[in-house]
Specification:
Distance between the termini: 96 Å
Number of strands: 5
Structural class: mainly alpha
Largest sheet: 5 strands, antiparallel
Strand content: 5-15%
Length: about 450
């Protein structure tokens, strides 16, 4: 049964009783408190959205680094990294939810400040005003009611005294009582009866006066109560609007970006191609890789007496673009060592491997007694070289090698040898570096 269908019965704490309006006044103060509580609720939810967004982005970055440095390869690696972008995009979505919630929070705060003015002694001025209005409306009624209650008390006391006097008079027949005592008791009974009549009349008169004022009391109290109802109705309706605003901020079904995010994720997953990845692996890590099979080589005294350590030129870093995979035939062409790696071209792992020639093939047969030995240590102290710029980072693995970062500029003092090594000078130090890691800078 709803509250409106119930038959209301008078109670000791009825709204019409003295000071029972205070519950209604407190409701106004509670409305102010609920505004503050709802603001806290929105703030905490927005913090949850922000923390979730940050965790999604941290998770995306963490696993992007792990996968990038891990053993996965080919299109499957690209798909795995691409799928992590969903988390980053959803992080942006949840940051957007946080921002919209804080907009609702700002609206609620503004409404609260406009509708609830702080009182000097705590609470709000609106509740204080309602309390003053209720007191004013109830004051005349309270005075008349107090008079009625006093008359009622006097009447009841007179009735009790009459009953006591009647009992005392009725007991005179059972004992030795003089006629004078009986006469006094009769006079007392008569006096009590007159008191009862007088107090009753007074009681009825004040009660009649109270009831005649009841309609005015009801009108005055109802007017103040209606004002409190209108104020509370405004709060309840606004809270409903705020809850609708929260719903709009949280409703993921209304965010168009989400469908786009997952459509892109689906497309990214569709790019995974097992056949392409297996071919890449076979050409760069497996049976389709080129190989310098062992061949007979003549002994060279010049090679054995050389003080310079022979090196195999490293390949350039592997490009991340899987579309640059070259065939084994192309790798074998580079293996011949006739042409350096061209600037700007991506090189696959297979091509890199093919560019590391065998030391045995580098041995040249020449007269060990030739006075113009090419391996004789040269003096580059007064030589002016050609300015080159590093295309990639390189860390020297031997003491006679130069180390540099991509973009560094230094001098090339001697062109590449048969192994693909050039001699250069960087920061006053002379050493070797792979020729396919640099390009000549236009003067």
């Amino acid at each position: 049964m709803s509250a409106g269908d119930e038959t209301l019965q008078p109670s000791s704490d009825s709204f019409w009783d003295i000071d029972c309006y205070k519950t209604t006044v407190k409701r106004t103060e509670d409305g102010l408190h609920m505004c503050s509580e709802l603001m806290k609720l929105i703030t905490e939810r927005s913090e949850i959205e922000m923390k979730y967004a940050n965790k999604l982005k941290m998770w995306c970055k963490k696993w992007s680094d792990i996968i990038d440095k891990g053993p996965e390869y080919g299109t499957n690696k690209d798909v795995l990294v691409g799928s992590l972008h969903e988390a980053d995009a959803m992080g942006d979505v949840h940051n957007g939810i946080k921002d919209r919630l804080m907009e609702v929070h700002a609206e609620l705060k503004k409404w609260k400040n406009e509708n609830f003015k702080k009182a000097m002694v705590g609470g709000c001025k609106e509740a204080k005003q309602f309390e003053d209005d209720f007191k004013k409306a109830q004051k005349p009624w309270a005075k008349k009611l107090a008079k009625v209650q006093k008359c009622k008390k006097d009447y009841f006391n007179a009735c009790k005294q009459e009953v006591a006097a009647q009992q005392a008079l009725s007991q005179t027949g059972t004992g030795a009582v003089t006629e004078e005592q009986v006469k006094k008791l009769q006079e007392k009974v008569e006096k009590c009866q007159r008191d009862v009549s007088q107090t009753r009349d007074k009681y009825e008169e004040t009660l009649k006066e109270l009831n005649s004022y009841k309609s005015i009391y009801i009108i005055d109290m109802k007017e103040v109560f209606d004002n409190t109802q209108k104020f509370e109705e405004k709060r309840l309706e606004y809270f409903k609007d705020i809850l609708i605003g929260i719903h709009h901020a949280l409703d993921l079904t209304q965010i168009n970006e989400i469908s786009t995010i997952y459509e892109l994720l689906k497309q990214k997953i569709g790019l995974s191609d097992a056949s392409k990845d297996l071919i890449w692996w076979s050409q760069n890590r497996g049976a389709d890789m080129p190989m310098n099979w062992p061949e007979f080589e003549e002994f060279s005294l010049e090679q054995s007496l050389s003080t310079r350590k022979e090196k195999s030129r490293p390949g350039v870093p592997i490009s991340s673009n899987n579309d640059t995979i070259r065939s084994s035939k192309s790798s074998l062409h580079n293996l011949a060592g006739k042409e350096p790696v061209q600037e700007g071209k991506a090189v696959t792992a297979g091509v890199v491997a093919s560019q590391i020639p065998s030391k045995a093939n580098a041995v040249q047969s020449s007269n060990p007694f030739d006075e113009d030995d090419d391996e004789e240590e040269e003096d580059f102290s007064n030589q002016v070289g050609v300015l080159v710029q590093a295309l990639f980072d390189y860390v020297g693995h031997e003491k006679d090698e130069l180390s540099f970062k991509s973009g560094d500029k230094f001098e090339k003092l001697k062109d590449r040898d048969d192994q693909g090594w050039c001699t250069g000078r960087r920061d006053g130090r002379i050493g070797l570096f792979p020729d396919n890691y640099v390009k000549v800078v236009d003067q």
